[in-house]
Design a protein that fits this description.
6% of the residues lie in helices and 38% in strands. It has a four-stranded antiparallel beta sheet. A three-stranded antiparallel beta sheet has the order 5-6-7, covered by helices on one side. It has one helix at residues 75-81, and strands at 10-16, 19-22, 50-57, 65-74, 83-84, 89-95, 112-118. The longest helix has 7 residues, at 75-81. It is built from one helix and seven strands, in the order E-E-E-E-H-E-E-E.
């Protein structure tokens, strides 16, 4: 933002195996809350498959800026660190790696993303 508090238009690019999907972007916030009805299906074949998430700031007139990332965490590690909501639904906080994020020195270790995982 030019004046006032800084904001972003964050979205996520999520990759599991060879499949990548993107979330919608949330306008004008540094603390996004994506719609409850937005979800993405991924098939995993091994608990050793790796999940990567890149959080970016949607820009109209320039390349999207990186806001942080989760690199290569295995499905097994996600479930081991997750809290159970019910028999098949889990939540897990992941700290974002801020390498390459301009001006993020004060946010290292403080920027996180909450994942909700459900399996069938």
């Amino acid at each position: 933002a030019l004046f006032g508090d800084p904001t972003s238009d964050p979205y996520c690019s999520i990759t599991l195996g060879s499949v990548t999907q993107e979330t919608s972007y949330v306008s004008g916030t540094c603390n996004p809350d994506w719609p409850v009805d937005e979800f993405h299906d991924f098939l995993f074949f091994s608990p050793l498959q790796k999940l990567s998430i890149i959080v970016k700031d949607k820009d109209t007139f320039s390349a999207d800026d990186p806001l942080g990332q989760v690199n290569g965490i295995t499905v097994e590690a996600l479930f081991q660190s997750a809290e159970t909501l019910d028999g098949r639904k889990y939540t897990v906080w992941q700290t974002l790696d801020l390498e390459g994020v301009e001006g993020a020195e004060d946010l290292v270790g403080k920027s996180r993303i909450l994942l909700e995982i459900q399996y069938f």
